Every structure is written in C-alpha cells, then in structure tokens.
Amino acid sequence: MNAIYASGRLAAAGFPPEPRGQRLPIVLQALDGSLAGASHQEIAIALFGRRRVEEGWSHPGNHIRDQVRRAIQRGRYLMGGGYRQSIV
User: Fold this and answer.
1) CB 29, CB 47: distance < 8 Å
2) Where are the domains of the chain?
3) CA within 20 to 30 Å of 84's CA: 24, 46, 51, 58, which one?
4) Could you tell me the mean pLDDT of each successive run of 10 residues in the chain, 88 residues long?
C-alpha cells in the first residue's frame, strides 16, 4: 500500500510472474499449429528450429516429439476449459 500511496502505482515486485507461465507461448503455438493441420514435425520446427529438430527428431528418447505432444495436449486441455482449474 505504501508503494501505491507514494507513486500511485503497484510495485511489480509484488506480483512475480508464474514460473509455469513461461510454457504458455509454446503451448499456444503448438495448439495453433495443430488446429491448422500442421504435422507434429512442422510444429516442432516452428517451436525449436529446423536444425534442432533434424538432429533430435529420430533420437531414441523421443524428447522433441514428446514435448510437442505434451504441448498440444496441454493446449487442448486449456482450450476445453482447463484454464479454469489450474495455471499452465
């Protein structure tokens, strides 16, 4: 309240960003690509870059593929109303 009184503004330090919120742009971009009919590999290229996808797409651990699948799944969950239950 002192900050509001002194400067007429809320102090940004009083409202730190939600750490999981950094994922939201990736989730939204993956969802948008999926809804537009892009393949998972095309979405991965848009998210992570062609070079990284070419190097890691066939990796036995499927890390990039899993990231894309999870991002699309999370986006669909949020689009279906899941944003009301939890934060990204």
Assistant:
1) yes
2) 18-84
3) 46
4) 77 77 92 98 97 92 95 95 72
